[in-house]
User: Which sequence fits this backbone?
C-alpha cells in the first residue's frame, strides 16, 4: 500500500502545487495589469505562464523523485529527463521575460516620441527586434550546451573538443562565410541606422516598405502586396534608395508633353486649384514650368510636395489625371498633335505655286493624336 500511495502523493502533490502556484501567479499578474494600464509589462508576462508552470513542475518532481521510489531501475534516465525538461522550460521562460521587458521599454519610448520623431522610433524598433532575436539565440545556445553537459560522455569529450576547436572553427568559418557575413550585416543595419522597419525603399527597381528585419534576411512588402526577401548583406554592399531617411517629406514630379500653344498661365492656376482640393498635398510648395521642347511638342513639368512617399504618389496621380481632363475639356488645342505631309515633290523649274500660295513640298495637314 505504501508503494502505491508514496508515488501518488509525490507526483500528484507536485502537479497540484504547480497548478495552484501558476493560478495564483496568473491572478496577481492579471490584477496588476488591470491597475496599471499605462504599461503592458504585466500582460506580456502572462504569456510566460506555460513555461513558468513547466519549470515549477519539473523542479518539484526533480527534487522529490527520490522520495517517490518509482521506477528505481530507471532512476537515472528519469532524473536526466526531468533535468532536460527543467533546463528547456527555464530557457523558454527567460526568453519570454526578456521579450516582455524589451517590448515594454519600446512601447513606452514609442508612445513618448511617436509624434515628435517617428524616424527615431522606427530605428529603435529595428534595434529592439534584432536585440530580442540575439538574446533568444544566446539563451537557446546556452540551454542546449547545458543539456549536453548533463550527459557524462559529453563532459568526457570536452577536452578533445577544445583541442580541436581551432581547426573546427576555421572550417566552420569558411563553410558559413555567407551566413556570418549576413549576421554581421544584420547587426550593422540594426545599429548603423541604414534601414529600419517601416522605411520606404527602392531595391532592384521595386518600391516597397520594409516589413521585417532579422539577423540574416530582410523582407520588403511592395505596393501590390508582394513580399521580396533579400539577404541583409545586400543593403551593406549595394546602393539602394531609402525614401524615409531623414525627414519623410518628398517632392514629386509630373510631366506632360503638350503643344506649343498650351496655356501655361491657366495651367498654373489650375494646378493651384487641384492641389488645394487634394488632401494629400502638404501645402509646402508647387511649381509649373517648361523644361524642354521639340519641333512638335514641349515638355511641361509640375513640382508638388507631400509629407511622405504614400501621399506623394497620391498627389502625382491626382494632378496628372485632373490636368489632362481639364485640358481635354477646356483647351483641346493644347494636346499634342501629329503632322502628316504629302510626298515631297521636286520643285518646278518655273517656280509655279499652287493657288493657295503654298508650295507642294511644304503642304501639310494635322490632326489631334489619338489618346
Assistant:
Amino acid at each position: 500500500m505504501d508503494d502505491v500511495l508514496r508515488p501518488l502523493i509525490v507526483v500528484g502533490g507536485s502537479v497540484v502545487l504547480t497548478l495552484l502556484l501558476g493560478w495564483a501567479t496568473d491572478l496577481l499578474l492579471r490584477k496588476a495589469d488591470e491597475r496599471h494600464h499605462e504599461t503592458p509589462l504585466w500582460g506580456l508576462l502572462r504569456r510566460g505562464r506555460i513555461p513558468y508552470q513547466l519549470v515549477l513542475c519539473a523542479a518539484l518532481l526533480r527534487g522529490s523523485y527520490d522520495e517517490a521510489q518509482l521506477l528505481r531501475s530507471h532512476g537515472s534516465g528519469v532524473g536526466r529527463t526531468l533535468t532536460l525538461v527543467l533546463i528547456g522550460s527555464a530557457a523558454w521562460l527567460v526568453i519570454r521575460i526578456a521579450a516582455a521587458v524589451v517590448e515594454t521599454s519600446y512601447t513606452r519610448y514609442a508612445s513618448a516620441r511617436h509624434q515628435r520623431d517617428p524616424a527615431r522610433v522606427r530605428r529603435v524598433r529595428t534595434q529592439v527586434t534584432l536585440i530580442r532575436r540575439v538574446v533568444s539565440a544566446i539563451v537557446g545556445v546556452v540551454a542546449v550546451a547545458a543539456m549536453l553537459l548533463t550527459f557524462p560522455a559529453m563532459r568526457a569529450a570536452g577536452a578533445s573538443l577544445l583541442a580541436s576547436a581551432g581547426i573546427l572553427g576555421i572550417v566552420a568559418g569558411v563553410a558559413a562565410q555567407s551566413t556570418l557575413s549576413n549576421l554581421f550585416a544584420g547587426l550593422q543595419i540594426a545599429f548603423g541606422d541604414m534601414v529600419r522597419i517601416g522605411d520606404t525603399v527602392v531595391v532592384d527597381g521595386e518600391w516597397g516598405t520594409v516589413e521585417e528585419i532579422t539577423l540574416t534576411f530582410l523582407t520588403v512588402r511592395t505596393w501590390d502586396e508582394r513580399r521580396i526577401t533579400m539577404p541583409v548583406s545586400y543593403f551593406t554592399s549595394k546602393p539602394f534608395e531609402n525614401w524615409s531617411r531623414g525627414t519623410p517629406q518628398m517632392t514629386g514630379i509630373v510631366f506632360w508633353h503638350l503643344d506649343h500653344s498650351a496655356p501655361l498661365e491657366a495651367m498654373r492656376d489650375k494646378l493651384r486649384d487641384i492641389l488645394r482640393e487634394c488632401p494629400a498635398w502638404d501645402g509646402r510648395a508647387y511649381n509649373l514650368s517648361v523644361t524642354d521642347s521639340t519641333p512638335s511638342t514641349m515638355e511641361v513639368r509640375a513640382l508638388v510636395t507631400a509629407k511622405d512617399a504614400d501621399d506623394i504618389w497620391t498627389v502625382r496621380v491626382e494632378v496628372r489625371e485632373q490636368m489632362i481632363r481639364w485640358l481635354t475639356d477646356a483647351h483641346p488645342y493644347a494636346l499634342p498633335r501629329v503632322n502628316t505631309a504629302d510626298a515631297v515633290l521636286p520643285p518646278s523649274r518655273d517656280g509655279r505655286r499652287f493657288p493657295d500660295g503654298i508650295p507642294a513640298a511644304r503642304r501639310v495637314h494635322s490632326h489631334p493624336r489619338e489618346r
Notes: The radius of gyration is 36 Å. The mean pLDDT is 76. Residues 1-110+121-150 form one domain. The beta strands are 200-203, 206-213, 217-222, 227-231, 241-242, 250-258, 281-293, 298-306, 337-341, 364-368.
